[in-house]
Design a protein that fits this description.
By secondary structure, the chain is α/β, with parallel strands linked by helices. The chain is built from eleven helices and 13 strands. It binds nicotinamide-adenine-dinucleotide and UDP-4-deoxy-4-formamido-beta-L-arabinopyranose.
Length: 344
């Protein structure tokens, strides 16, 4: 019988791509999402790609009764992938209580109900934000790098969430967790049927790039060219969302086949290669043939100069590698933008 996974936040950007990969690997999926940052139509996109629809429950993960009902309705759940969270760094500074309530209460609710219903495997979406700006001798950053004081309430919720999982695993010895620290997810499914749906003016680089190329924005503002990097712009580890999604399937498989060596394992998910903002612009123009108007402006407050992953642990232990060429990744982002805007 197919194994059934609960995917919270499964209508969102990374969640929807993960649902596709899970279903293509033969898993049954129940998506729980309150659609606070996603659109129900994403389920049509998933169904078109996979050929069948995941089950969907419109519910808030902070709602104990509603989530209890999900666990009661699906008694064969064998794991949870918990994406549901609010994720806008700037908004978290404006509305810290919303972030603490939503991101922390949703996790504690899910963990409580997992114990209650004896569902003992969880994959949790964490972030490279927990490392802050790693010290020079810790670049690329591996999992042993110290977590730095969070620069935003959002970042703090990820650190607190990681600690909650560790504490719960200590108290409840049947729980197994894999914490995945994502670097910068970008791109869209090659079908261009699902992708990122930013709300309003995008904060993240790639949606801003594709919207500028589509003519929705006049120009991209490059936040600073006076950093201590080869071309002066910031460096990040941009990881293809489909590669990232596949890591979740590996993580679930690892726990279900009892291969996990520790109750809580942490993996960095990145490519191992840093790219600067100016390199991304050049690669985007090369991949798509689109001219990208941009201007250099001052630094963005709170930006980290450079960070990229050492993904060796995920490569060797999870047996996973992010290896899609940046050309294909950027093209997928552009094809998705064209699909959204009906650009031929
Ligand atoms: P997203 O906003 O597209 O997806 C999150 C989904 O969760 C949305 O569909 C939203 O409606 C839902 N949601 C939020 N709060 C909920 C709640 N209380 N109950 C039910 N549903 C809820 O974001 P994403 O980019 O797909 O991110 C997924 C996860 O990965 C998040 O935990 C995020 O913090 C983490 N993450 C994202 C990035 C990134 O750059 N995108 C990087 C590192 C980590
Ligand atoms: C990337 C680079 C900007 C927009 C954020 C969160 C982090 C994680 C990933 C969730 C930076 C530059 C951007 C623009 C630009 N999310 N930039 N012009 O800041 O690395 O990380 O998303 O966990 O927590 O903080 O990503 O996409 O915003 O920026 O020059 O219009 O692009 O300065 O160097 P960031 P980003």
């Amino acid at each position: 019988m197919a194994k059934r996974i609960l995917v919270t936040g499964g209508a969102g950007y990374i969640g929807s791509h993960t649902v596709v990969e899970l279903m293509q690997q033969g898993y049954e999926v129940v998506v729980v999402d309150n659609l606070s940052n996603s659109n129900i139509n994403v389920l049509d996109g998933i169904a078109s790609i996979v050929g069948r629809r995941p089950d969907f429950v419109n519910a808030d993960c902070c709602d104990y009764v509603a989530i209890d009902n999900v666990f009661r309705s699906y008694t064969d759940l064998c794991g949870v992938i918990h994406f549901a969270a609010a994720k806008a760094v700037g908004e978290s500074v404006e509305k810290p209580l919303h972030y603490y309530r939503n991101n922390i209460h949703s996790l504690t609710t899910v963990l409580e109900l997992m114990q209650e219903h004896k569902v003992n495997h969880i994959v949790f979406s964490s972030s490279c934000t927990v490392y802050g700006q790693p010290d020079a001798d810790h670049l690329p950053v591996d999992e042993t790098a110290p977590r730095k004081k969070a620069l935003s309430p959002y970042g703090n919720t990820k650190q607190i969430n990681e600690d909650i999982i560790i504490d719960q695993a200590h108290a409840y010895d049947k729980l197994h967790a894999i914490i995945l620290r994502y670097f910068n997810p970008i791109g869209a499914h090659p079908s261009a049927l699902i992708g990122e749906l930013p709300n309003g003016i995008p904060n993240n680089l790639l949606p801003f790039v594709t919207q500028t190329a589509a003519g929705l924005r006049k120009e991209l503002r490059v936040f600073g060219n006076d950093y201590n990097t080869p071309d002066g712009s910031c460096i990040r580890d941009y990881i293809y969302v489909v590669d990232l999604a596949k890591a979740h399937v590996k993580a679930i498989e690892r726990m279900l086949s009892a291969k996990a060596e520790e109750q809580v394992e942490v993996f960095n998910l990145g490519t191992g290669r840093g790219l600067s903002v100016l390199e991304i612009i050049r690669e985007f123009e090369k991949a798509t043939g689109q001219k990208l108007p941009y201007t250099i402006v001052g630094r963005r407050e709170g930006d980290i100069e450079q960070v990229w992953a050492d993904p060796t642990k995920a490569n060797t232990i999870l047996g996973w590698k992010a290896d899609t060429p940046i050309h294909d990744v950027l093209l997928s982002a552009w094809n998705w933008e064209k699909h959204l805007r009906n650009i031929p």
